[in-house]
Each structure stands twice: as C-alpha cells, then as structure tokens.
Amino acid sequence: MKDHHHTHEPRLVTFEDCVRFHGHSCPGLASGYRAATAAMEALGVTRPEDEELVAICETDACGVDAIQIVAGTTAGKGNLIIRDYGKHAFTFFNRREGKAVRVTFHRKEKPKDPSVAALQAKVFSGTATDDEEAQYHELMHKATVDVLHAPAEEIMKIERVSMQPPEKARIFASVTCAGCGESVADAKTRIVNGKRYCIPCSEKIR
Length: 206
Known about the structure:
This protein is α+β, with helices and mostly antiparallel strands. The chain is built from seven helices and nine strands, in the order ααβαβββαααβββββα.
C-alpha cells in the first residue's frame, strides 16, 4: 500500500534556504529562523498557506528574511508586519485559532568584547585586512552555529500572548494620479485642490 500522505507534506524549509534568499549567513538570520520554527511549533502550524499566520516583527533586520521564508509570512501577502522598535522580538498570530506567541531573545549578559566591536567597525568601513576579515567571518560563523544549535530555552523566550487579530490585507481600486498620470491605489491618494494625486506628486505641490 502506497503512502500518499507525503505527497502533500510541505517540504521542510532549511536554514540554507534562508541563506540563499537573504544572500549570506549571519546570527540575525539564524535567530529569525529559530523564532519562526519555534513559534510554528508552539502554534501547531506546518508551512502555512495564504494568510492564516501573521508575523509582527519589531525589527527590520536580517531575521525578518528567515521569517518570510520559514513561516510563509511575506510583505507581498500582507501578513508580515514590521513595527520597527529596534527590538529582536517577533509575534506570530494564527488567524484560524486566534492564538499568538511572542518570541524574544535573551541577551548574552557577557559584556561585548571590545575587540570584536573594533573588528566589526573595520569590516563595515572597508578598512579591515584580509586576515581581520577572515577572523570576523569566523566569529560570525561561530555565533550563527551557536544560535542554530543552542537549546531554545537558552537563547529565547516563547510566551503566549493575547491580541486583537491584525487587519487583513485589503484590495483597493486604482485611480489615475492627476499629476504623473500613473495608476495609484485609491486609499493612498491625497486630494489637493479637488484633484486626486499620488503621495509623491501631492508632496511636490505643497
């Protein structure tokens, strides 16, 4: 007897898939990967389709890319919301059951090694030597591996939260901007002197 069950099983998204999408491997991407997989497990969701799962990210950093790939919550589907408070915190809301979890990361209470900070500054400003560059990448690789393999409770807190369902993505009628003549979503137009303009055109008039 053939097992037909697996034909519909979603393929597990790997960290490598996230790296391919994001362009490089880094600890931030790894934490987004861990947050999304832990939240989906807590909410009992496999790869979600459409908008059943919504992710609210309190940062716009690297981890968001992993969340889009792993949880299927994407900017274009309207179920990825960024509220950039500069916090490494991610809330996942399952519309079907009205349940939500918030994932936050523990800061390692070790003081940040000043030599690492200096190294990072050199790499980002393009003044690092090849050796320093290699040393930095080695440190980042080690930090990434740590995040990927550490027991969940060591690196993050996963708590159930109650919240109002986020608004669903809406579909708006398009109108033509009186300024540039381009098509623009009705809801995003501004009325100036009785005519409808897109936001960039309306800002030029003022």
